[in-house]
Write a structure and sequence with these properties.
There is one protein chain. By secondary structure, the chain is mainly α. The chain folds into 4 domains: 165 residues, no CATH class; 190 residues, Methane Monooxygenase Hydroxylase, Chain G, domain 1; 147 residues, no CATH class; 197 residues, Phosphate transport system protein phou homolog 2, domain 2 (Methane Monooxygenase Hydroxylase, Chain G, domain 1, Up-down Bundle). Helices cover 79% and strands 0% of the residues. The radius of gyration is 29 Å and the shape is elongated.
Length: 754
């Protein structure tokens, strides 16, 4: 069993964790060596310690996001050390500072995975500061300065001189999806494969898709909150799935209608497949960080040629059934090709923004670029650009309610830290710092992970102190001990996400060795105190997670997903009704709908954590759950784009089928909610694509009419306002349909494993 757990290190996600361990090793080893050279071992060892702590905040993601997290955490560490040193001698002030500081540390999870990791580092630093002897302004400033130096060193190491790309293994496994599609298309277009060979080639592509989903699932284990990079890669995985589905549909059309009249069409189709293969290969290279520019222009020319073939087929229609069948075949191929072209353009755009977003050349403070990375197409960029102007405190404001799971987590952490300080202050317990530290690492927003970490922490601590005691008794050389401690901490960082008890074993080794180096003798290591404090901290975390503001576990993910779908359904209905209704709509009411959908999405992220960290959850359920937790919020963001466009709406008469489309979307989202509620696979979706195609065809006809007006220097009082009102709206409705289809497929996979 242990060998199977370590086999994870050979997967792409495991390689990422190994690089984190190597960086931690460098972060601690170089300052320690400088301390030996400069004969200032104590100060430089302190700098190494803070650099190692800071590395915990670098959980990955896009370059700009990592940079902001590390810089903000460094500033927070400086303040925590300064204030903690000043108040550590006063119990009242200490309790006040810790209650506020630990609440904020827990509440930073509103900013996702990076915020949660930053909160852990800040909470750790504050607990460490109050455990040290009280000092005046000079002492506080000196400790803060050492912490600042450690933070700056870790920033320099993580963002500027680290020679490897930490996210490369993860990006590679996603790029292999598109490389697999390219290779499949090259085989199909250059060699006449029989049915069996074609199916085998298709299965190989599907296996790559499953591997990428599995890898993304592994990297999600042990992490907390959203991550922009991971969300973008999930989008690209779903894009590759949709592209392959479209190609499969085209293959079936040609296989079923292999007629002599389609010889020219088949030749053009082979050229199309070759061009798609080149585009997919370029997309793969872009994902890997290479400078590539996929050429979609030639594909567009080939599609136009096929459209001309459809026109020729229509002109030569006779009473012959084969002629009519060939015309229908070409028409169906053109419909699928337009869909394929749209999918490839969106994928190329997303991949290009991914490359820019993960580049060190990106401006750290440019929120507009972050919005572009999260956008799906040009219309969404505009809406997200507006939302990016919202103040940074909005996530704090939206979750500042007892209904928010993140608020409840922060409250538990604050109460637990205060209780821990009171316990080791009033009782004769030494090294009480470990009570708060255990609470900080064990207590999580979900009970299942807290329960799991409680036993892992106890097991790792007890086994760690027993093994390390032997080392400390037999090894007396401080330099050798320091080397062992640094290596132990690097190993711990590599293991902490997927084998917590073993990581605690090595953390315990590092802590006891550091205790020994600081001047204590082996007879006074405080091993008993360490075990007692760990037990007290673990019991506090267990009791608070189980007994304070805990919701029922049996509902969790499905219930919260149902709520999120219902909220976004109501949000969609309210916004689209405003387009159809000629009366003045209530802006405040629409904003309230949006905020309720956002809160539901935050709860969905928390429910996802509970699902992932529950040991009884089947692994096959995790991937579709991650997809749902990614795409339901994306569906809500699509509605927000419609809301933004509503602000410029002039009141043009909507297409008659818009009302039918709204009813179909409402029906689809209601059906998906009922599917989750009844633990059943979802029914087929209403004819969303057909209804939307009618609306889109009408829009295209009006666009052509408007172009004729412009060429004739005319200006219609109906066309121009209509196109201004509905150009972006209808484009976004197409994207909303794609997201609903992805949600349906994810629910089918999720309920299929019940």
């Amino acid at each position: 069993m242990l060998i199977k757990r370590f086999a994870f290190l050979l997967r792409p996600g495991g390689k990422i964790e190994i690089t984190r361990g190597i960086r931690t090793l460098m972060a601690m080893a170089i300052p320690s060596l400088l301390g030996l050279v400069l004969h200032e071992q104590q100060d430089w060892l302190t700098i190494a310690l803070f650099a190692q702590i800071m590395m915990l905040a670098d959980v990955g993601g896009l370059y700009a996001q990592r940079a902001k997290t590390l810089i903000g955490t460094t500033v927070g560490v400086f303040l925590a050390l300064f204030l903690g040193t000043l108040v550590s001698g006063s119990l009242g002030w200490t309790l006040l500072l810790v209650s506020i500081g630990l609440f904020l540390a827990g509440y930073l999870t509103v900013y996702g995975e990076n915020g949660g990791a930053s909160g852990v580092v800040l909470g750790f630093t504050l607990l460490l500061a109050i455990s040290l002897p009280q000092g005046g302004f000079d002492t506080a400033f000196m400790r803060s300065l050492l912490g600042l130096m450690g933070g700056l060193w870790s920033i320099f190491l993580a963002l500027f001189i680290w020679p490897f790309q930490p996210n490369y293994p993860l990006r590679k496994v996603v790029a292999q999806n598109f490389q697999g599609i390219a290779q499949h298309l090259q085989r199909v277009s250059t060699v006449k494969l029989d049915r069996e060979q074609n199916d085998q080639s298709f299965v190989q592509v599907r296996q790559l898709l499953l591997k990428s989903r599995e890898t993304l699932t592994y990297t999600r284990l042990g992490s907390w909150g959203h991550n922009d990079l991971r969300e973008l890669l999930i989008v690209l995985i779903e894009d590759s799935d949709r592209i392959m589905t479209t190609l499969t549909a085209m293959r079936e059309i040609v296989t079923l209608h292999s007629l002599p009249q389609l010889a020219t069409v088949e030749i053009l189709l082979e050229d199309v497949l070759k061009q798609v293969a080149l585009i997919c290969e370029d997309i793969a290279q872009l994902i890997l960080g290479k400078q590539k520019k996929p050429d979609c222009d030639r594909l567009q020319l080939l599609i136009k040629a096929l459209q001309q073939q459809q026109q020729l087929q229509q002109q030569t229609l006779t009473l012959d059934v084969d002629d009519y069948t060939s015309w229908i075949t070409v028409e169906q191929l053109n419909i699928w090709l337009e869909k394929l072209q749209s999918q490839l353009q969106l994928t190329v755009q997303t991949t290009q923004e991914l490359q820019r977003g993960d580049s060190h050349k990106q401006s750290i403070g440019n929120r507009e670029k972050i919005a572009k990375i999260l956008s799906r197409h040009k219309s969404e960029i505009k809406a997200l650009g507006i939302s990016s102007k919202q103040p940074w405190w909005e996530p704090l404001k939206e979750n500042f309610s007892i209904e928010s799971p993140l608020f409840r987590h922060a409250l538990r952490l604050s109460i637990g830290a205060v209780l821990g300080i009171l316990i080791y202050t009033l009782l004769p317990i030494r090294q009480g710092f470990w009570i708060g530290l255990t609470l900080l690492f064990v207590l999580k927003p979900d009970f299942s992970l807290t329960f799991q970490r409680f036993f892992s922490r106890i097991l790792g601590t007890v086994s760690g102190v027993g093994a390390v005691y032997v080392i400390l008794v037999t090894v007396q050389d401080p330099l050798l001990l320091e080397m062992i401690g640094i290596i132990a901490m690097a190993i711990a960082i590599s293991l902490i996400r997927f084998h917590y008890s073993l990581a605690v074993f090595f953390i315990t080794a590092f802590a006891l060795i550091l205790h020994q180096i600081s001047g204590q003798t082996s007879e006074n290591l405080g091993i008993n105190d360490r075990i007692v404090c760990t037990l007290i901290g673990g019991i506090l975390a267990f009791a608070l997670s189980f007994g304070l503001l805990r919701q029922k576990e049996e509902w969790r993910f499905s219930t919260v997903a149902i709520t999120a779908l219902n909220k976004v359904n109501l949000y969609f209905q309210a916004v689209m009704t405003a387009f159809l209704d000629k009366t003045v709509y209530q802006v405040e009411e629409l904003h309230q709908r949006r905020n309720k959908a956002r809160i539901a999405n935050t709860c969905l992220q928390t429910a996802l954590e509970r699902l992932i960290d529950d040991p009884s959850t089947p692994f096959v359920k995790i991937e579709p759950a991650i997809t749902l937790a990614n795409y339901i919020p994306r569906l809500g963001r699509g509605v927000t784009i419609l809301l933004t466009q509503l602000e410029q709406y002039s009141g043009s008469e909507a297409h008659p089928n818009i009302n039918s489309f709204i009813q179909q979307v409402t029906e689809a989202l209601t059906m998906l909610s009922q599917s989750l509620q009844n633990n059943q696979k979802p029914l087929p979706l209403p004819a969303l694509n057909e209804t939307l195609q009618d609306i889109f065809s009408h829009l295209q006809a009006l666009q052509q009419a408007r172009l004729s007006e412009i060429s004739n220097h005319q200006d219609s009082q109906q066309l121009r306002p209509y196109l201004r009102d509905y150009n972006i709206v209808i484009t976004e409705l197409r994207e909303i349909v794609r997201r609903i289809e992805t949600i349906q497929a994810a629910i089918a996979r999720f309920e299929g494993e019940s």
